[in-house]
Structures are given as C-alpha cells and as structure tokens.
Amino acid sequence: MGGWFSNPIFKNGDYPEVMKTTDPGQELGRGLPEFTESEKRRINGTYDFFGFNHYTTVLAYNLDSDSSISSFEADRGVASITDRSWPDSGSFWLKMTPFGFRRILNWLKEEYNNPPIYVTENGVSQREESDLNDTARIYYLRSYLNEALKAVQDKVDLRGYTVWTLMDNFEWATGFAERFGLHFVNYTDTSLPRIPKASAKFYASIVRCNGFPDPAAGPHPCLQQEGAEPTISPMSQEDVQFLGLTLGTTEAQTALYVLFALLLLGVCGVAFLSYKYCKRSKQKETQPGEQELNRISSF
C-alpha cells in the first residue's frame, strides 16, 4: 500500500513496477492509470514531509490464486497472517508488534531517500475499558516509542510523533466500542467528561522529558513535575435515592437486581401456590362422583 501512494511522489513519479504487471492473476495493473512523462516529472518530489500512520505488523506470503477470482488479495498476489503469540488489542486487526515499527521506518528511509517523517497516528485500542489503569496501552506506547528512538539512532529522519489518540472517540464501523484514547470519555454522561487514564500521565512524562531518562543518572528534573494520578472512577458515582436510602450508582444497581430477583421469586411462588390450589379443588370435585359409583357397584 505504501508504494501505491508513495512511489509517484517520493521516488519516480510513477507506480511500482510490481503493481503495473498484467500477468495472469494480477488484475490490478489493468486498472491503474498511466502517467505521461510530463506528469511523472510534475508529480515527483511534490512533498514537504512523509506523514505516516502505523499501528501493527503482519506476516505476508505469496498468494497464487485462480485468475477467475477477483478479490483484493488476488489482485495484489499477497495474503497476510499474524503470529498467535503477539499480544491482542481491542481491534481484531491490531496486534502489538513494536519490532515492526523500527523496520518500516528504516524501509522508508532506504526506499525514499530518507525523507522527513512525521508519525501522524500510532496507538492501541481496548474494549469495555472501565479501569483507568490501562497498563496494556502503556506497554504499547513505551515499546513503540523505544523502537522509534532506535530508528532515530539508525539515522532515520524522524521529526515528530503523534499518539492516537487524545481521547476516546467514534472509530469508524466499530463506533464507540473500541477506545484508543489517553483520556476516558464517559458516554453515559450527557456532559461527556474526559478523565485521564494512567497512559496520559505516562505519555506526558515522555513529552516532558523528550524521551526516556536514564535511571542510572538518578531522578531527572522532568519527572519531578508529574501531576497527580487519576483518583476517580471513569464512570460517574453520583448518589441516588433508592427505597428511602442514599446509595451510590453501583449499590443502587445491585439493589435493583436483588429487588427484581425477589419480585420474580414472589411471582413464581404465587403461581405455584395457585396451581396447587386449583389442582386440589379439582380433586375434591371428583370425589363425590367416585363414591356414587362405588355404591352402584355394590348394589
């Protein structure tokens, strides 16, 4: 995908040769427009920097498919898989693979003559996040930023980095289910409060220190400015009145469940007693008839 958009601008004004092939099973080349030599010269080099979004890495392998099959994988002749040992995230497509970050940055350096690079998106998602102590996200950020610093040591012209994202938001087809934010957004509250997670404090220290201070050098001044950790739950804990009692929202919810269970149990009990009562009444109604039959038989 990178070559598709980047080759014309950063390399030679045209698409990669591998994309233009029209070999059997490679239908993509037939759909690409062709640039004139004048257009190539006009397109090539029209950039200020390379904006790069990166989240994860996959393992790719050659895919030989039937030429009659039309699909994204068949057109590009490549399929991809992931390693089961790679840590999961809240998105099915996103595995935590920090090693790939340094590799792709170095590939961009070698492939496009080391352009200025700004990482415009990099982050990880979690689902059903209700704990502000998001250790998985801290692991992700620490690992990926460390690989980015290694890339800088490799002479990659990495100018900037932007985490995705500041706060939980609407994530395309998954809506609000996947949370990428450093700040928790309580969607059940109409005021939509933004509450910092532990990762917000961690990332703030990285920005303040412009990297990872060397522990061997002792406490760094930039770490002495850290703010207080989040002290409140991401979900609002307003008091509510329940049967004359003042309870927190969690306790009130539990009490409501208990009350509903007791009500359901009471309804079932009444239904059972009604059934037993009706059954016994029917038995009493049939007993006189049986006695009359017995008398007739004995006569």
TrEMBL record:
The cross-references to PROSITE patterns, in alphabetical order and at most eight, read: GLYCOSYL_HYDROL_F1_1
> Which keywords does this Swiss-Prot/TrEMBL entry list?
Membrane, Transmembrane, Transmembrane helix
> What domain of life is recorded for the organism?
Eukaryota
Recorded hits in InterPro entries, A to Z, give:
GH (IPR017853), Glyco_hydro_1 (IPR001360), Glyco_hydro_1_AS (IPR018120)
**One GO MF term, please?**
hydrolase activity, hydrolyzing O-glycosyl compounds
A Gene Ontology biological process term: carbohydrate metabolic process
Question: Active-site positions, per UniProt?
Answer: E121 (nucleophile)
One protein family per Pfam: Glyco_hydro_1
Span-the-membrane segments of this chain are: 255-275
Q: Which residues form the signal peptide?
A: none
Q: Which family does it belong to?
A: Belongs to the glycosyl hydrolase 1 family.
Q: What is this protein called?
A: Lactase
Instruction: Look up and give the organism this protein is from.
Output: Sus scrofa (Pig)
